[in-house]
């Protein structure tokens, strides 16, 4: 490593431990938020274009919505590895152990490649029965299979672009991480109308555009992590699996994996319940609402990604005052954002719904349902901020239990139970979400504050 590169690397690490928290969070979070907002355009742009295809738009949009659980599950496996590995790599950097950090990253890269092979094979072989089980109908199964059959072929690109990009962010290179998704998303926006309309490929064209865009993003990530600017570099000697490295990574990554994979399970439960009580129109309405939830949640994820390197690095360096400042500022930002978005959804839901469909019946159902389903979204700031802070601090068990609480313990049972108490069964399904959101956020907040009072006291710095 050259003297100039060594100086740059040391400066990057030193900034995480010395720069003003507000300025540092802003410099890391803005690119991360931008990246998350642009990243959501991958699937949202597909839905916008698909929903406006003449004559078949509503059925095609509903069919693509059936594939959400699979798309979410593929992303969840990248989080299992990367969101377990990136905080541990940051903590190792804070401890001054760069060799350990590079071994963590190398093991994660190998694990992501192995998962890509397995996931691609499973979804290609079993795609039709999976889609029927996930709530497809005779009207939507064809569109769902057209999209899924192509999308899953790009699983390796998803794993690399999403998973390894976390290691770019965790080193403090937020702008580079942002460009990973900007490049892919802009390409997807350009290619979608070409494949869907100009080449008349419909749903299949949307999937092809997405896969090509993700491939370009994956190449960008690898070029950076194999290049000279990175602090941590992918090295062949660090890629051999060491279970004493990988198992703790997976242990920490289980929490975000469950958060995302249970989102997949949740989509299945919701789709089947909505199909039972409201038919394809209700499933289509949930497809639109799920897209709006991405608009809410991904910027929150961007904020927490920006805070993660600061929190993890200073926790590893035993600088508890900076850890506390980081968490407080993060919570201020996430709560402000979620409350403002809640106000917008309650006042003008039709503005958000109209982006995805012009079908009058679907719009009426989605506007009505959005006010119910998203009534508790003001609590997302506390839930996401404290949940992700547990991850940044390496607290796998607490994060896992809280991830299980909202969806497995509360929401999924409520989806089945609450309709029994309402004459309007569809209302009972939709109202389960805000009830679970508010209860889970309250529990997460109390749990974190009690833990922090005991564990984030000032401790002697390491020599």
From TrEMBL:
It is a multi-pass membrane protein. It comes from the Bacteria. The keyword Zinc does not apply. GO terms for cellular component: plasma membrane. GO terms for molecular function: antiporter activity; xenobiotic transmembrane transporter activity. It is found in: Cell membrane. One of its GO terms (biological process) is response to antibiotic. InterPro entries: MATE_fam, MATE_MepA-like, MATE_MepA_subfamily, MdtK-like. Keywords: Antibiotic resistance, Cell membrane, Membrane, Transmembrane, Transmembrane helix, Transport. The chain crosses the membrane at residues 21-44, 56-83, 104-127, 147-167, 179-199, 205-227, 239-259, 279-300, 329-356, 368-386, 398-422, 434-452. The keyword Disulfide bond does not apply. Its main location: membrane. Pfam families: MatE. Belongs to the multi antimicrobial extrusion (MATE) (TC 2.A.66.1) family. MepA subfamily. This is Multidrug export protein MepA.
